[in-house]
Amino acid sequence: MTQISEATIVQPKQQAGSLSRTALAATVGTTIEWYDFQIYGLAAALVFSSQFFPNFDPLAGTLLSFATFAVGFLARPIGAIIFGHMGDRIGRKSTLIATFLLTGVATLLVGCLPNYNAIGIFAPILLVLLRLIQGIGLGGEWGGAVLVMTESEAQTRRGLLGSLPQLGSPAGLVIATLIFAATTAMLGTEQFAAWGWRLPFLLSLVLVLVGAFARFSMPESQAFSQAKRTNVIAAFPLAETLRTQWREVLLAGGLFLVTSGGFYVYVTFMVAYGSTNLGLSRELMLNGVLVFAITELLIIVPVCAELAPQIRTVA
């Protein structure tokens, strides 16, 4: 979504209650969205090879599992384009509700999906399709959540407010890892492989209901509401952004590619490599991911709040 210029729109002061509801909805929503995204990665590392690619040797099956995981990343720019346009044309709130429900429903359906032994080649095909839907939903989620927060207050607090939705990534990873660790601890290896891996996906139904309530209760961005009233919304926001800010788009895309690449190698592939190739226990690898996620969760807001003034100075 395109950031509405403060030079064009004079924002009225946002009430504390309205800002709190927006912050809660944005942070809870991104947490649940990333929970959905992360449990897929953990399942790809631990069980998808045997469930959806049983006719391949373990290494090939693991690579194919991560190939389906990669589909979500390829779909995220598509989601950003689709929902970015919707957010700029029809509103931030309705778009964030749509992205949230899209990802949540796709995640729930993964938990209900029959495996290869039940429906053959259609199992991995449907898995890829659901992963594609997940990626499209998350592609429109994160940017929109950050945007509603940075449009909520004056420039002096944007670093702090914009960091709140980013808490959803490590928070979702913490929840996903804890649930996977608890499931693997309570069930035997055979039970976990047969049906236990579905439980984290099915649990997303409860989280989706909680998140949907938070999103429906959040107010629309005041900056967008005023822009709509004054008719300053671009007819084709993506074209306008690429025309006026193409350098910033390339820079942001490159930065995100570098940071996210290492992140997902650690929280997904390393779990599979450690438990399969190094002979380490699943519990040990999941605990390592958990420590990493908690550390990230604790430092995001202080770091963003500290760097925000420097970023504004450079800009």
The number of helical elements comes to: 13
Structural class: mainly alpha
Predict the CATH topology. Answer: Growth Hormone, Chain: A
Number of strands: 0
What is the overall pLDDT average?
Answer: 80
The whole-angstrom Rg is: 20 Å
Shape: globular
Helix content: over 70%
Number of domains: 1
Which residues form runs of ≥5 with pLDDT under 50? Answer: 5-12, 311-315
H/E order of the elements?
HHHHHHHHHHHHH
CATH homologous superfamily grouping: MFS general substrate transporter like domains
- How many strands, what sense, and barrel or not for the largest sheet? none
The CA-CA distance between the termini, in Å, is 20 Å
Could you describe the 3D structure shown?
This protein is mostly helical and 315 residues long. It has a single domain, classed as Growth Hormone, Chain: A (Up-down Bundle), CATH 1.20.1250.20. The chain is built from 13 helices and no strands. Helix 3 crosses helix 6 (122-150) and helix 4 packs antiparallel against helix 10. The protein starts with 15 loop residues before the first helix and ends with a helix.
Gist of the model:
The protein is mainly α. The chain has helices at 16-46, 48-52, 58-89, 92-112, 116-119, 122-150, 158-163, 168-186, 189-194, 199-217, 222-229, 237-276, 282-314.
Please render the helix and strand layout as text.
Blueprint: H1 16-46, H2 48-52, H3 58-89, H4 92-112, H5 116-119, H6 122-150, H7 158-163, H8 168-186, H9 189-194, H10 199-217, H11 222-229, H12 237-276, H13 282-314
Helix pairs in contact: 1-3, 1-4, 1-6, 1-8, 1-10, 1-12, 3-4, 3-6, 3-12, 4-6, 4-10, 8-13, 12-13
